[in-house]
Write a structure and sequence with these properties.
- Helix 5 packs across helix 7, helix 9 runs antiparallel to helix 11 and helix 14 crosses helix 15.
- By secondary structure, the chain is mainly α.
- The radius of gyration is 30 Å and the shape is elongated.
- The chain has a 3-stranded antiparallel beta sheet with strand order 1-2-3, covered by helices on one side. A 3-stranded antiparallel beta sheet has the order 4-5-8, with no helix packed on it. It has a two-stranded antiparallel ribbon with strand order 6-7.
Length: 403
Amino acid sequence: MDSSLKDQQSKHSPGSSRRRHRGSIRQRGAGSFEVRVFVGVNSETGKRDYVSRTIRGSRRDAEVELTKVLRQIDEGAVAPRSGSVGELVEAWYRLRSPNLSPPVAHNYRRIIDRNILPRWGAVSLRQLRVKDLDTWYARLLSSGGVNGGPLSANSVRRVHAVLHAALAQGVRWGQLVANPADAVTPPSVHRQSIVLTAGSDDFALLISSAKRVNQVLPVYFRLALATGARRGELCALRWRDVDLTKGVIQIGRSLVEAAGVVTEKDTKTHQVRRVSVDATTKELLSEYHSKVLTLCVDAGGHLPDNSFVFSHDPEGRTPWRPGYVTAAFCRLRNELGMRSLRLHDLRHASASFLLAGGVDVKTVSVRLGHAQTSTTLDIYAHMINQADDRAASMLGAFLDEKG
């Protein structure tokens, strides 16, 4: 132990001195010090364990940090690379899950159970290496999917995000000196442009045939195409959000479903937006509202403003579950031989039709509820390119006409 540390100990109380005999301060360079504290012998390896910190500043700053680390160790808040990856991930999930939306928490749990724990659950934190993580990501890409098939780059990135967050918490808790996932190279993800496999005639057939599944389903499909709203946003829609006079829909809430539990929350981008609908859609909504009101009155009830627009209950007290809408759509889609079509494609169709009609990207982005216009540009790049080609042709025709 260096003399400077002995001098420090003499200036403190006996209790402080007993703690400090485990620590040392070493100058590494100009304005840089290493604080190192012995915390015992590792039972697995028989080697001495230390907690280290690098401090930028003066020796006095290093002394303050040494006192802080010693206190944290005595209180059990800091440990060396202790425990397994699985123990850390579970502790992190218990900490984070109460603050997550149900679908996000459910997705994290699925990633932990399917991907992280089978490979890393029993691995000691001290054995975790960057190279091993990179090798694992490559294996997930080639054979980490269902039945040993490939896992998409997007899915691997999500696995990486969960593991990285848990390890980062381990650093904050002092279980790791550094986060091994900081240095790995997860696969690059390139946003794919949406290319619809269905045309306007296909969507018209879908709407006209929807009554075979549910009498109200045509209204839902029409509204999905007319607004570009997400599935959960339409399920959360209440009659107070619908201005039948002006034909304006206010979208500010969404229903999410995870493990059979439905929860109401704000929209994906935490924004409230107002979307105008065309005259035919407005008329269809007015007719539907009148029918619902009549059913309520005939049943001796009433229709409050906060009633859900889409509900199996005449008074709209409970909404359609998002899962029900998807199941109804898939049943109809399969009957019509459109197996490649997804419910979310109604949203994509709404955006594609608008862009193809020459509507500016900013307006389309606002209607869809994208947080940034760049998101719309990325997803619908091919439609924007087509609009640009038409603009060039129109400009060329004008210039030719004027000589």
